[in-house]
Structure formats: C-alpha cells, structure tokens
Amino acid sequence: MLTVKGLKKSFGGVHAVRDCNFTVKEGSITALIGPNGAGKTTVFNLITGLLRPDAGDVRFKGEPLTDLQSHEIFHAGIARTFQLLRIFPKLSAIENLMIAQPGSEGMFDMFTKTKRIRDEEQTKHERAVEYLRVVGLEKKKDLKGGDLSYGQQKLLDIARCLSTEADLILLDEPVAGVNPTLREGIKKLLVNLKKQGKTILLIEHDMNFVMGMSDKVIVLDHGEEIAEGKPSAVKKNKKVIKAYLGE
Amino acid sequence: MNAYVIHLFIMLCIYIVLTTSMNLAVGFTGLINLGHIAFYAIGAYTSALLAVKLGLPFWVGLLAGGCMAAFFGYLLSFPTVRLKGDYLAIGTLGFSIILEAVLKNWTSLTRGPLGIPGIPKPELFGLTFSSLELYAILAFTLALITFTVLKIVTVSPFGRVMKAVRDDEVAAKTLGKNTFRVKAKVLTLSAFFAGVAGSLYAHYITFIDPTSFAITETILIFSMVLVGGTGSLWGSIAGAFVIGILLPEPLRFLDLPSSIVGGMRQALYALLMILVIMKRPQGLIGEDTFHSMWHNVKRRFKFA
Q1: Separation CA A90–CA A32 (nearest Å)
Q2: C-beta neighbour count of A131 within 10 angstroms
Q3: Could you report the per-residue pLDDT of B8-31, keeping only the tens digit for each?
Q4: Is A154 among the domain residues?
Q5: How confident is the model at residue A172 (pLDDT cuts 50, 70, 90)?
Q6: Residues near A196 by Cβ (< 8 Å), separated by ≥ 6?
Q7: Tens of pLDDT, residues A2-12
Q8: Do A76 and A173 sit in the same domain of this protein?
C-alpha cells in the first residue's frame, strides 16, 4: 500500500534519513523502531509532506506522494498523529474531532448551503461523539483541548486521527508517557482497527508494545534501515541489539 | 438628539466595522496583520476619488472601495506563506508605511498632504444623507451587516478551520486543510470590510488626508481588538466603545489645556492596556466568555 524507495533527507550536515526503503502492506500493522535520532519522525514528516525529500520516492496505492502538499496527502487517504501533541488547544474536544470530518467548508457556505451545512454538522457531531466514546473521552467533549491532561490529549489526538476514515494511519509514539492500563486499551484499539481493514504504521520505543501486535518491524538507525521482518526475528538480530544496547 | 452624541455614534459604528474585521484575521485566524489601516485608507481614497473625480455615486464607491481593499488584502496574503507571527506583524506594518508614503507623495492622484476635500454625502433614491441622523442610520446598518456576516462566517465550519489554523497550522494541514487558501480568504474578507469602513468615513467627514491613516491609527484599532478580546466579535464592539468613546471623550469636558488632554489620553490607553493584559488577558469579552457564563447559569440552576 505504501512504498518508500531510496528516501534521503539531510539538514545541513546531518543526514537524518539516508537511503530508506520499506513497504507497508495493506491491512497490516507495521512498526518503525529505532534509537533516538534514528530518523523515524523525519520519515513520517517526509511521507506526510511536511518536509520535502532530497531524493527518493514515496508511493501510496501506486501514486507518487512526493509532489503533493500535506493537505492533498490527507485527502489521498493518509492521516497521522504527532509525537509532540498537536491538538487544537482552543477548540473543544468535540470540535477537535469534528474538524477532521469531511464536509463543505467554504467561507460563504453558511449563506448558500445552509441546509446542507446543518445536516453535515449533525453527521460530524455524531461521528465525533462516537470516536470520543472509543477513547473514553465522551464526558469531556465540551472541554477545551488545552484543558485536558496530557494523557487525554494524547487520546484525543489518536481519536482524531482514527475518526478521519483514512486508509493508512501513521502514529508517532502513541503510548509514550501513557500509563500501562491505557496502553493496553490503545493496543486493543489498534488491533481492532486492523481487523476492520485499516493499515497502521507506528513509531514506538517500547519494544514490548510493538512486538505483541505488529506484523512487521522495521528498524532504523542513523537514518538507515538495519533490519526488517517479523518481530521475533528482529528481536534476535545482532545489529538491532547493538543499536539499542551498544556493543 | 445632541449632534455630538450622534457624531460619536457614527464614529463608533465605523470603528466597529474596522475592529470586527481586523479581529477576523488577528483573533480568529492568528494573522497579526498591522496593515489593516492601509485597507481602510485604500477604501477611503478609492471611494473619495471616484466621487470627486468621476462623480460616481456613494454606493458604487463603497463597493469599489471594499473591492479594491479586498484585492490588496488578497495580495498581502502571499507573504503569509512564509511569514508567521511577529514576522507577519512587521511585514504588514511595512505595507501600511509604504501605503502612507504613497498617499503623501503620489500628488497627481491623491493631492498628497493637501488631502481630498469636498467628498459628497451619499444619495439614495433622491434622498441625501446629509443630516447626522440619516448618516447614523446608514453607518449603523453597515456595522450591523458587517457584524452579521462576520458572525455567520466565524460560527460556520469555515470558522472552525480558521481557529484550527490559528491554534496549530501544521495539524490543520495534515487534516487536509489548505491553510494558505484559508488565510488568503480571511485577509480578503477582512480587507473588504476595512475598505467599506474607509468609504463610510470619507463620505462622512467629507475630507481625507494621509494623517487619518497613519501608523498611530493602526495601533489604536489594534488596541481596541486586544482590549476587547481576540477571537470575539462582541469583544471587538466592547473594545471599540471603551477605547474609542468611553475613555477619550470625557476628557474633553475637563477644563484642561489640550496639550495635557492629548498626553493624558495616551497614558490612559497605556494604563488600560496594562490592566487588561494583567487582569484579563482574554480581553473584556473573551472568546469563551459567553460560553462559560452559559455554563455557570446551567450549573446554578442544575438543568445540565
């Protein structure tokens, strides 16, 4: 579904990503792991168009993404979350989700398509409530995003990403700083989503979290892929152990 | 009614058109645009020149002034791709300084510092809006239209996108919003109403010169928006009233020499600004003031 070929990006003299190749199969959970500074988030930013690659090719369902703008990539069917949360602090929790739903958003649509907007808002609201319920935030729906706790903001970000109906979901450290109970909750959620046919690519530091549910693990170090395969195989790979634990 | 009071009312209406439209960019979309007064000037000069040189009626000038300002607003949206926050503020401030210089020096068109005198009062269906009362009705109607249009835009799904762009532009982009187009539309609409305000002002005072559109005016309108409350249209009305009328006008009735009154007015503005920033950073009527008041009422009567 997603193919990354020869992806390169450097910032000044730092080669954040050099020659990164991998594929993500439809309907799978793929984990992108690696030590700090390995270039994982940069890869996400390159896929979602927030950064332009120096070289290489990213294809989604066979179509090239590298020339598209971020908002066009979203409409192609890719949604993401951020490691440093990027919820809208002054919008309420429910509005944070409603904004991710499709609908007409022209400046004067309220004057010209009043009826349609009203119906759409109804649908958006229902769907937003549904996804807030999935992450257990339905009672907080009228609170401002910025007034939620860190963990709740994290869930809100995930809920917003899931509610988009994107085919491919990119999650940047979805359980970092999240307590063990909630962690299990998120895990179940992701496994359920996979059953519903969604494709997930996630970045995670917590090996145990990743190992239990991924179909495939890709290990990055210094911007290069050093291992790829089933979780059990990757776990025993010498290069991976070295990258994580040193010599 | 007292002519003085009606005059204040007309000025208040003009201020409201200016502040609510500026708030659309500054408060709702996070575009700190200090060039708003330039759009006001463009509207005023366009309308005045069309009336004086070509003898076109006020209504044409009003629309042309708005559209001309909107066009420049659209042009000014291009730098926003790169300029954010403080940088945008400086860039747009530059725009209004350039415009002031053009007004002062393009003497063949604007007569420079001499200004444009003899701008006719509006006419409609043979009715001339020369009396203060009639003009007040006109100004009020335009302020009401502006407020209504902006209110509907800000509560619509588009308004939600505007706030999202303000809160986190990167997140808005990755949720499929073309943030540049949103900003361009906002600046265009905001500038349109500033142009309308300019035309309304020109035909009211019947004389304009570059000093009416100086940088100090930008700061005045900007403080109205800040003190009133960014992201709240009611706040902008409150700000226009407090800073435009409530604070400066009573000073006229104190028996003080004008040199002192002028300085005192500035000092009072500064004092109010500091008080608001310290005690009520969200402004007199903030973005959530009505929302949380409603919440409190519901809690008190336990029907939530």
Answers
A1: 32
A2: 22
A3: 999 999 999 999 999 999 999 999
A4: no
A5: very high
A6: none
A7: 999 888 899 88
A8: yes
Is A161 part of a structural domain of the chain?
Answer: no
Q: Chain A residues within 8 A (CB-CB) of chain B?
A: 48-50, 69-71, 73-75, 79-80, 82, 86-91, 95, 98-100, 103-111, 117, 120-121, 144-145, 160, 164
The ipTM is: 0.89
Specify if A159 maps to a domain: no
A134/chain B closest Cα distance in angstroms: 20
Nearest-CA distance B81 → chain A (Å): 13
CA distance B27 to chain A (A): 12
> In chain A, what residues touch B166 (CB-CB under 8 Å)?
90
Question: Are residues A224 and A240 part of one domain?
Answer: yes
Total domains in the fold of chain A: 2
Residues paired with residue A4 on neighbouring β-strands, in sequence order? A22, A58
CATH number at residue A80: 3.40.50.300
Contacts of B174 in chain A (CB under 8 A): 48, 50, 70-71, 73-74, 79-80
Q: Are residues A196 and A77 in the same domain?
A: yes
| Domain extent for A95 | 88-147
- B163–A88 CB contact, under 8 Å: yes
B152 to A69: CB separation less than 8 angstroms, yes or no: no
| A6 lies in the same domain as A76 | yes
